[in-house]
Amino acid sequence: MQPELLDDRNPFRPDALEWRISEGLVDYPSALAEMQARVEAIRAGQAGECVWLLEHPPTYTAGTSANRADLVEARFPVFDAGRGGQWTYHGPGQRIGYVMLDLTQRGRDVRHYVHQLEEWLIRTLERFEVRGERREGRVGIWVTDPVSGREDKIAAIGVRVTRWVTWHGIALNVEPELSHFEGIVPCGIREHGVTSLLKLGLPVTMADVDAALMETWPAIF
């Protein structure tokens, strides 16, 4: 059974997962405010779970473990995200997935939840014949160049859990401007780079990625 895409014409049902897709760019403070409001509504039983797919304008965000020295050059607006993790860049061409789930209904296991997010990204990348992998001691999903052996990050994960309701989520590099990552040390890791589906030779559309994310979701969550 595929997830149901809800809109304003489809009234709230507690058992329904809403897939929300925003057109255009959503500024980071607005997204934070909307996520927080939705998390509070889920906690109060006034709204159902939601996966929100969107893009941000060029932005640097700092997680709770961010080292200020890893902000190399503040080329774009900088925000404290309140999520776990370190520095991340968000921008056009990157698919953000903000995931708001009630873990009281899914088992109160944050480690397992993060593993599910990783698996969701891995299976989504498989749809485009890309092998995404976990790496011990490194957050996110990584790909290895078959010729050089270089490992690059293709997707980031950063989560926050408030009274067992999740927010924040994933960032998958579809076709962002990769030079924008040079203003930070992504996730505090200096010895590896970042990549995208486009850089891997895959001119995938955002609609293609959204379809893959929705299709792979049910088997994991």
Description:
By secondary structure, the chain is of the alpha/beta class. It has three helices and eleven strands; from the N terminus they run E-H-E-E-E-E-E-H-E-E-E-E-E-H. It has helices spanning 28-43, 110-126, 206-220; strands at 18-25, 50-55, 59-62, 78-80, 87-90, 94-100, 133-135, 138-144, 151-162, 165-173, 193-194. The strands form two sheets. Strands 1, 2, 6, 7, 8, 9, 10 and 11 form an eight-stranded mixed β-sheet that branches. A three-stranded mixed β-sheet has the order 4-3-5, with no helix packed on it. Strand 9 and strand 10 form a beta hairpin. Helix 2 packs across helix 3 (206-220). The longest helix is centred in the middle third of the chain and has 17 residues, at 110-126. It is globular, with a radius of gyration of 17 Å.
SSE topology:
Blueprint: E1 18-25, H1 28-43, E2 50-55, E3 59-62, E4 78-80, E5 87-90, E6 94-100, H2 110-126, E7 133-135, E8 138-144, E9 151-162, E10 165-173, E11 193-194, H3 206-220
Parallel strand pairs: 1-2, 3-4, 9-11
Antiparallel strand pairs: 2-6, 3-5, 6-10, 7-8, 8-9, 9-10
Helix pairs in contact: 2-3
Overall, the morphology is: globular
Number of helices: 3
The low-confidence parts are 1-12
Please give the radius of gyration in angstroms.
Answer: 17 Å
What's the story with the biggest beta sheet?
8 strands, mixed
**How would you classify the helix and strand content by structural class?**
alpha/beta
